[in-house]
From TrEMBL:
It comes from Sakesphorus luctuosus. This is Plasmolipin. PROSITE patterns: MARVEL. Residues 25-158 form the MARVEL domain. It is found in: Apical cell membrane; Myelin membrane. One of its GO terms (cellular component) is apical plasma membrane. Forms oligomers. Its main location: membrane.
Length: 173
């Protein structure tokens, strides 16, 4: 839990306290990457939605993946910003985040490949080509951010960012 802000306070938060805003989460690697994923995911699905994607089944998959993970990323971002993970301390949040980011990475790989393969320069509408090509690029960048988040989530899950003394102090405080 070393990479997750608020992890040291997990044991000390009283159950009746209202959620507070954790600004330090945005400065952490996972917080910054989640913000980037929200912005990039928004770009991917809005660019696809601005085309005639309903005529091509491949873009339906890209639309599903990008919109689904955009919504889940926003939910996780709000959860960590408001420190709601401290209220549900039974859930292994570092493991949940690692699994979420790993699944998002794999599905964004399929969405990126699908989107890039379905772009045809001979499209009858030039603006559809430009938007689909841009969506392919942003899907690739989003896929990379989810992959990097998987790495940081794995480190947080394994506790690789702290030493033994730090973990003992926070576990018994």
């Amino acid at each position: 839990m070393a990479g997750l802000p608020g992890a040291a306070r997990a044991r000390s938060a009283p159950p009746g306290t209202p959620p507070t805003l954790d600004g330090t989460f945005l400065c952490s690697p996972l917080g910054g990457l989640m913000c980037a994923q929200a912005v990039l995911g928004l770009l991917v699905w809005s660019l696809i939605a601005a085309t005639t994607y309903h005529l091509h089944a491949a873009y339906g998959w890209v639309m599903f993946v990008s919109l689904f993970f955009w919504i889940l990323t926003l939910l996780f971002l709000v959860t960590y910003l408001l420190q709601l993970q401290l209220k549900f301390y039974v859930i292994p949040w570092p493991l949940v985040l690692m699994i979420y980011h790993a699944v998002a990475t794999v599905l964004y790989i399929t969405a990126f490949v699908t989107c890039a393969a379905a772009v045809h320069p001979t499209s009858w509408r030039q603006w559809d080509y430009n938007r689909r090509a841009a969506a392919s690029f942003f899907a690739c960048v989003t896929m990379i951010t989810y992959g990097v988040s998987t790495f940081f989530s794995f480190r947080a899950w394994k506790g690789l960012g702290s030493n033994a003394a730090t973990s003992q102090v926070t576990d018994h405080a």
